[in-house]
């Protein structure tokens, strides 16, 4: 199974995979992921809530423990040997975060529906209404926590010429021209980090760019040392991880606290413009 699958591929293989609707939306969007899932989802899909499958923290949807993830996933009817396809209602947004989580917890047989629910609908396929309640599965998680870093690790990396910190937020947020939506967060970016909005990796249909275009966009960052990705709260940073993975870099680290932590801590440096 490839990392990215099309609606046609999914329609053909649908009975053989476990489908996960990983939709999550920013509070300001006014969208309710659970309500939208119940109103219509790809047949057989279960809903994965990144705010529920999360560690207890003042920061949003921080990575859960391996035990918590395993219990949550098993209750969605997913087992160790299942092939999994993940999608979201945006096209490619929060699904990348859940794809990253599955891989982090030892499940490599996981793919993303390129273009998500919009692509499925555009291809003319039907939806299912209601909430799926599958029988529990059996899932065992083994965390690769070396791929997750904290603020101290990032701070050290910013002064290391062999480390690149990539920020997936919009350029306006990176430069501080746009205020952060979460209260108490400073505007700007980590000094020495690089702006790479995740939207630069998507086409007009919210599909990931073709591989040759991805490689051109990511060329300045490939083979240049260790890469750490960050964003607002650890969601779209996973889109950068996904794109780098497709370009052959599987050693990328993700800063889970991202700007929700960095921008809220007065002891960490912030730059603007």
Task: Describe the protein.
The protein contains 10 helices and 10 strands. It is α/β, with parallel strands linked by helices and 273 residues long. The chain has 2 domains: 4-143, Rhodanese-like domain (Oxidized Rhodanese, domain 1, 3-Layer(aba) Sandwich); 146-262, Oxidized Rhodanese, domain 1 (3-Layer(aba) Sandwich). The mean pLDDT is 96.
What key phrases describe this protein's structure?
273 residues, alpha/beta, Oxidized Rhodanese, domain 1, 2 domains, 5-stranded parallel beta sheet, 10 strands, globular
In short:
With 273 residues, this protein is an alpha/beta fold.
Radius of gyration: 18 Å
Strand order of the largest sheet: 1-5-4-2-3
CATH superfamily of the largest domain: Rhodanese-like domain
Q: What's the CATH C level of the largest domain?
A: Alpha Beta
CATH architecture of the largest domain: 3-Layer(aba) Sandwich
Principal-axis shape: globular
Largest sheet: 5 strands, parallel
How does the helix and strand content classify structurally? alpha/beta
């Amino acid at each position: 199974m490839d990392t990215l699958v099309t609606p046609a591929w999914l329609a053909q293989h649908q009975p053989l995979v476990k489908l996960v609707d990983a939709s999550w939306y920013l509070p300001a969007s006014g969208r309710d992921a659970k309500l939208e899932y119940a109103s219509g989802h790809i047949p057989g899909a279960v809903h994965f809530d990144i705010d529920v499958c999360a560690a207890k923290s003042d920061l949003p949807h921080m990575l859960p423990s391996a035990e918590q993830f395993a219990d949550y996933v098993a209750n969605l009817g997913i087992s160790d040997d299942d092939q999994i396809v993940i999608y979201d209602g945006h096209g490619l947004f929060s699904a990348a975060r859940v794809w990253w989580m599955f891989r982090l917890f030892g499940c490599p047989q996981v793919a993303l529906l390129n273009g998500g629910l919009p692509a499925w609908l555009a291809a003319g396929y039907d939806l299912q209404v209601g909430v799926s309640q599958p029988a529990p599965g059996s899932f065992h998680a083994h965390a690769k926590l070396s791929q997750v870093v904290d603020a101290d690790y990032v701070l050290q990396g910013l002064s290391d010429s062999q480390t690149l910190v990539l920020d997936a937020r919009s350029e306006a947020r990176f430069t501080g021209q746009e205020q952060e939506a979460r209260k108490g967060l400073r505007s700007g970016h980590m000094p020495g980090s690089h702006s790479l909005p995740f939207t630069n990796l998507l086409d007009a249909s919210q599909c990931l760019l073709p591989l040759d275009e991805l490689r051109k966009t990511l060329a300045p960052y490939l083979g240049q040392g260790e890469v750490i990705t960050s964003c607002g709260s650890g969601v779209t940073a996973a889109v950068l991880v996904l794109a780098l993975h497709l370009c052959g870099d599987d050693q990328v680290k993700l800063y889970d606290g991202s700007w929700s932590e960095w921008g809220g801590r007065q002891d960490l440096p912030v730059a603007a413009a």
